[in-house]
Amino acid sequence: MNVFWHRRDLRPDDNRGLARAAAADESVVPLFVLDPTVLDHASPVRVATLLEALEDLRSQYRDRGSDLLVVRGEASAAVPEVAAEYDATTVVWNEDYSGLARERDRAVRAALEDEGIAAESLHDAIHHEPGSITPNQGDHYSVFSYFWKKWRDRDKREPAVEPDADDLAAVSGEPIPTLSDLGFDEPEATPPTVTTAAARERVADFCSGPIYDYADRRDYPAESGTSRLSPQLKWGTIGPRELYVATERAAERAESDDDRESVREFQRQLAWREFYAHVLAFNPETVTEDFSGYENDIEWRDDPDALAAWQAGETGCPIVDAGMRQLQAEGWMHNRVRMLVASFLTKDLLLDWRAGYDWFRRTLADHDTANDVGGWQWAASTGTDAQPYFRVFNPMKQGREYDPDAEYIREYVPEFADASPAEIHGWHELSDAERKRIAPDYPAPIVDHAARREQAIAMFERARDDS
After folding, report:
1. What is the pLDDT of residues 37-69, one digit of tens each?
2. Any residues with CB less than 8 A from the CB of 321 and at least 6 apart, and which?
């Protein structure tokens, strides 16, 4: 027998590692390990979506006459134990790219070697493995536009062949633990459904219409202009090759050059995910360290009250607070708003990006280490291909531009139910008396954007030693 160890690939279809295990003329035992070392970095909302995806994966295996074994324990002990129990000759898995995951995998590989069991890993979550798209000098690109040109022009693999019932071992697993069993509370947020069926439904809906308006409408949070596939991609309930094929078919159905370009823009966002995976694979320390160093340390402020106001959506900046409250309610936030709240934390509140990253890690259902670290360091002007430090988002202007009728803001900030768009977007300019009349329970701005913008630029110039 062979064991296939699932991690962030919770699907039987378009799964390269599973296909490889099934192609060896051995019955495959599907396995997932609830590793406490990994769960120490998890959160209720993420574990809730994980357990939902595991139940769905188990159901898909049972439909094929097999089952998913879900065991608890350190992977370096649990994986060899399961392999030995089923007299497996090989354990196969798909690669992950965070430092924590790679340390875990090295330990599992060593433990299997000690038991005389072969280990094999494949690249599945991304189309082009780290080290395959490189500049003439160095291990990886640090400027996305160059990476994108090569990513776009490289051939993509076809979806991996799914196993059938004859490929799978007739095993029977124990019940999957609950949140409470694992020591987690119920999440405050109501996360999206994370299953293969839900992922495919999202892809079908998106590629049947919204993808053709993606380039023009993706930045408007009140609209359904994005795919909202990030939680599915996080847990791999749909394969990247299956998704890419769906986008290529959408491009073939496009009725105009603009439609085709919009599909290309969505594919470009998929390439961003891979770009950040490549960066993290070669720079695992960037989870806690700046990618782009400055001559001097950045003088981030220590202000717990400001951080708490940001986390709670009580900063007095309407578009920022709407985003933070959407995060609380759904475990998800629109991407344009993610950029705004990150810029606000680092450039208006002058707080360390690591505090924001940690909050996203705890509250996002789709938290992905590479993507979130890359996004936060971009906003903080410390990462690869980052926002230049002197370009600071004006959140009020961004609110007017991307939520002109304040629909998104009113949805998540009910204090503004009776306020006009002009009053909402001009909140920072109103008198205390006007604010009390319009939305008495909503706070005044905790910072002055214009003043903080100047402070942020000065802070970065000191770090650069621009003297």
Report:
1. 999 999 999 999 999 999 999 999 999 999 999
2. 313, 314, 315, 409, 412, 413
CA distances from 447 to 22, 179, 309, 315 (A): 58, 39, 11, 8
CA neighbor of 229 nearest in space, from 217, 213, 242: 242
Rounded Cα gap, residues 281 and 297, in angstroms: 25
- Which residue is associated with the tokens 């019955």? 27
Distance CA 342, CA 332 (A): 14
Contact 235, 243 (CB under 8 A): no
The H or E element that residue 324 is part of is helix 318-330
- 418 burial (CB, 10 Å; 0-12 / 13-18 / 19+) is exposed
Token pair belonging to 345: 């934390």
> For residues 169 and 303, what is the distance between their CA atoms, to the nearest angstrom?
56
Best CA proximity match to 305, nearest among 292, 317, 314, 293 = 314
Nearest to 444 by CA among 302, 314, 295, 287: 314
**8 Å CB contact between 144 and 275:** yes
Cα 457 from Cα 391, distance rounded (Å): 9
Would you say residue 181 has pLDDT above 80?
A: yes
- Helix count and strand count (H, E) for the chain: 21, 5
Residue-by-residue DSSP string for 230-241: HHHHHHTSS-HH
Residue 306 to residues 314, 386, 409, 459, Cα–Cα distance (Å): 9, 24, 20, 18
Eight-class DSSP state of 13: S
pLDDT in tens, 213-245: 999 999 999 999 999 999 999 999 999 999 999
Of the candidates 364, 396, 55, 4, the one whose C-alpha atom is nearest the C-alpha of residue 169 is 4
Distance separating alpha carbons of residues 429 and 434, to the nearest angstrom: 10
- CA of 37: how far to CAs of 162, 248, 369, in Å? 31, 39, 15
Cα first-last separation, the chain: 66
E strands, 203-305, in order: none
What is the side-by-side strand order in the sheet with 90-94?
69-72, 28-34, 2-6, 90-94, 118-122
> In the chain, pLDDT over 90 holds for what percent of residues?
96
